[in-house]
Amino acid sequence: MAVTGVLRPGFVQIRVMDLKEAIVHYRDNLGLEMVSKDGEFAFLRAYDEFDRHSVVLRQAEEPGLDVLGFKVISDAALADFVKRLNEMGVKTDDIAAGDHPGAGRRVRFSVPTGQVIDLYTEMELSDNGPMTKNPDVWREEPRGMRITRFDHCAVLGVNIAASAEIFEKALDFVVTERAIDPDGNPVAIFLTCSNKAHDIAFLAGPADAKLHHASFLVESWNDVGHACDLIAQRNISLDIGPTRHGITRGQTVYFFDPSGNRNECFAGGYQHYPDNPIREWTVDQMGKAIFYYEKEVHDRFTSVMT
Amino acid sequence: MAVTGVLRPGFVQIRVMDLKEAIVHYRDNLGLEMVSKDGEFAFLRAYDEFDRHSVVLRQAEEPGLDVLGFKVISDAALADFVKRLNEMGVKTDDIAAGDHPGAGRRVRFSVPTGQVIDLYTEMELSDNGPMTKNPDVWREEPRGMRITRFDHCAVLGVNIAASAEIFEKALDFVVTERAIDPDGNPVAIFLTCSNKAHDIAFLAGPADAKLHHASFLVESWNDVGHACDLIAQRNISLDIGPTRHGITRGQTVYFFDPSGNRNECFAGGYQHYPDNPIREWTVDQMGKAIFYYEKEVHDRFTSVMT
Amino acid sequence: MAVTGVLRPGFVQIRVMDLKEAIVHYRDNLGLEMVSKDGEFAFLRAYDEFDRHSVVLRQAEEPGLDVLGFKVISDAALADFVKRLNEMGVKTDDIAAGDHPGAGRRVRFSVPTGQVIDLYTEMELSDNGPMTKNPDVWREEPRGMRITRFDHCAVLGVNIAASAEIFEKALDFVVTERAIDPDGNPVAIFLTCSNKAHDIAFLAGPADAKLHHASFLVESWNDVGHACDLIAQRNISLDIGPTRHGITRGQTVYFFDPSGNRNECFAGGYQHYPDNPIREWTVDQMGKAIFYYEKEVHDRFTSVMT
Amino acid sequence: MAVTGVLRPGFVQIRVMDLKEAIVHYRDNLGLEMVSKDGEFAFLRAYDEFDRHSVVLRQAEEPGLDVLGFKVISDAALADFVKRLNEMGVKTDDIAAGDHPGAGRRVRFSVPTGQVIDLYTEMELSDNGPMTKNPDVWREEPRGMRITRFDHCAVLGVNIAASAEIFEKALDFVVTERAIDPDGNPVAIFLTCSNKAHDIAFLAGPADAKLHHASFLVESWNDVGHACDLIAQRNISLDIGPTRHGITRGQTVYFFDPSGNRNECFAGGYQHYPDNPIREWTVDQMGKAIFYYEKEVHDRFTSVMT
């Protein structure tokens, strides 16, 4: 395969303080499909995803990111990644198959910025996923924000260079964009395992183990606008948008789930290839880098994290 | 790298019967940048491509496809592909570096359906490509059809299964969609080497070595509509569109260059991953497969090729 | 008021052969709101309309247009229109208030091409219409084809010049566009009573009292595309589209209701002012006039009418 | 005519401090056509307007609004307006034909909030206006922000009720939306003379004779986004956007010309009819009224005026 190794961010497990309220948000506002509910867990899926679920909500005392899961193309590739992680001194643990419904064995590790990452190769296909025999564009008209898929997370921590290095060296991710301070230290690193402009982003922050946002793909700038209409009409807590990123060129809107976890709906962004030059930003241009139109970043965007 | 092996369709070399007229079409209608002209050759590039050129026009007696070039990630990968091609009985030839301005060595072979394919690893970067230091979304406002990149070709021939097999077995392409006749014979095979829904398509046809269309990416359905406005206002020869494909879900318009080569502007299409099921079409649904809205294919689309 | 006299096409009454099936189409496919059902009549409304209803479906043996209703700004204006109609020899009848639920008195007349036209000044406001106190963009996310309003009808008949003359001379409509055959006879006349490119269209046809289509407004080219997706996915009978008109410049898709009445979803079109020149088309350019992209008209479009 | 009396805002005359620089902005950024230059005056026109010019720039010491011109349907209507203005105690002056190139006689008056208003019935047609014989959608691909027309102005002053009353009582404008403070005083009044959601807006402000913004129409939300891309890439001074208004529902971006005059590009907004209820806003909801997404207004928007 020309796309190999890590395929994509396959699921995100988010802590929410009121599971019922969170289900309403992710199902009715984002427009995800409710797949199953199991005690303190809820499992959801976007209409254009084949796998059983991509969003896991867990009832908890505090919001935040439990786990970010990446699907790997094969057990052989997974074994190789484990070997390389261990060789880099990254300890891995096994999560048994069935820990999540429909999901196979997962290999778990933590990055220096404190986030928990799972690698896995198996998840049941949804029986309501995209059609494959003489398929229609969708089974039913998309609703809510018309999310097509869970796309990526941006996470925060102190030593983002060390976390990014693990994704680069052990997992074959490629840096697409990077922002550097005058001393040469990275303040933001965007990495991809595909043709997407980013599959994970590390942002320098004051504390580790933090989630900046979980991001969901929509089809177009038009659907970003529609998401904004819904956010306004339903009094969802807006962070910023509609706007465009300098980094990735994605068209975007940020808002909060009822527990305060930041969500993003975004569209566009360029196609990346590993022979493309890295795009580099200087900190004096971080406003433009983050919000291409406004050219400045508001405090909430840099200070609110879960 | 998680994207490895063959990166993408890197250039297409098209035969045109009046080079001057063809340059006007590809530069002013499609909105490509004219890079250089060298005797019977012209080299052009879309604004969002890093490499020096992606479209080569050659003055010739007849229209058609000279060569479809695929960029490979490394010399090691290229050597491996050559070995595997040769092992499959596919003869390869070397084209020396510099045969095209700014281009490295190319390895050339032909597929059973008669098309000539080049593999290569090196091409100079354009000095007018996408910005990489605190980049803007583009250097100058896109014009014409606002093409962002050369995307793929669809080619015709008799034994498309044999051609597709070479891309699968020797070059690690993955079949994304396939249309099958009642006897189980493929009438259309779509393959990708990336997250795109297709990087090359083989269509069953009565003659070999034929081009169905060269396809160019635009950002959105809105830009497909704008391309149609230009086609109408400038009296460019329309084939069909705006419409949507069932296969790939791309939004599309087809038209002809002044020599009769079919061009496509398209947007959208899903992101493909190698763990996704193949989408399969039956020939009784080929109308829907090809033109999702019309659900039927007009004669010109199946009979005109170059 | 600067907009005075006839305000707009206020309702259309369409004959359908299966009321239940028709309700499903207009409510779920077009996305209209079901207002009330009363025997052989059903009343519906688009989400962005203030008046109680704008679409009336009547169970009948044959499809077609029962009545096209125009709302008039005041009783004084209505009385003046009646006087002028009568002076032109056009007989008017009164329909008592309450004949339609929530509707006031209507004045009815027929045009030489056989269509029945109602003029009226009063209709109850919907209690679910657009918000007026600190309003949101809509009360609920639009669904189906996301129709914002009933927009206009195009009707067919022999002596379209005579029908258009009544709208011009008695009702103060203005001709915006006109297509003329080599003998100077009109083959299509588009008239407006507002800033819209058309509020009614007369098309020359072999028979009188015919409906070509009832047209519904959507917000954008994007929503025209969405309507096409729905048409394809739900196997609604497509006529043609997505495409653009030369006349009015509207972006459009045509399809049929279950009884064979042609519907249109359209977006865009210019703003018209009475000091603008008339736009004129010659019959050799009727292809471009009707379908700006295709530049030709298919038989079904000119031969199928109800 | 059903659209009668005042037709539309026909031209705006704006003071600029560097005419050359201003021409570059309005011509290349907004994408207007340069019509003529005459000493301290420059005349421009949007591609979809029939009249000779709609934007007049005047070299001056200070930025701001010189005159807002409204085209009237007939001399009889103009004479009636003058009579009614004078009866209301509004003094009118005559500007002779030819004072602006290609323009007829204008009647000038001032409103209590200090703005100068011209009424006129005659202006030469542009020889490069929209085509009228078998017309294309445009003569040449729109460029820059792809402005289709000058649309309206919002102006500031102390006694906006008095100014609005003149437009209502003497000129037959209709109030479409209104924001009221707890004492019942209007803080914003939007009026239309057409089917547009507004043709002029009065905003309560601390000083008279002020311009809040001159607004230009674009086709779609997509073109609002494109305008934002241009604003960012060309370092045009952004005020706010892309966003949506609660009032009018228009999709919008605000920015400044080189002299500090605020410009708006906007799309959408509902169609208004004089039988529609007035939409009313309370001051506690002014954030939502003005910026539907952000639900708050930044200081610059309320304090910067010219």
TrEMBL record, chains A, B, C, D:
Q: Which InterPro entries match?
A: Catechol_2-3_dOase, Glyas_Bleomycin-R_OHBP_Dase, Glyas_Fos-R_dOase_dom, VOC_core, Xdiol_ring_cleave_dOase_1/2, XylE-like_N
Record keywords: Aromatic hydrocarbons catabolism, Dioxygenase, Iron, Metal-binding, Oxidoreductase, Repeat
A single Gene Ontology MF term assigned here is: catechol 2,3-dioxygenase activity
Query: Which EC numbers does the record give?
Result: 1.13.11.2
Cofactor names from the entry are: Fe(2+)
The record's listing under Gene3D superfamilies reads:
2,3-Dihydroxybiphenyl 1,2-Dioxygenase, domain 1 (3.10.180.10)
Q: Does the keyword Zinc-finger apply?
A: no
Family statement drawn from the similarity comment of this UniProt entry? Belongs to the extradiol ring-cleavage dioxygenase family.
Q: What is this protein called?
A: Metapyrocatechase
Source species: Hyphococcus aureus
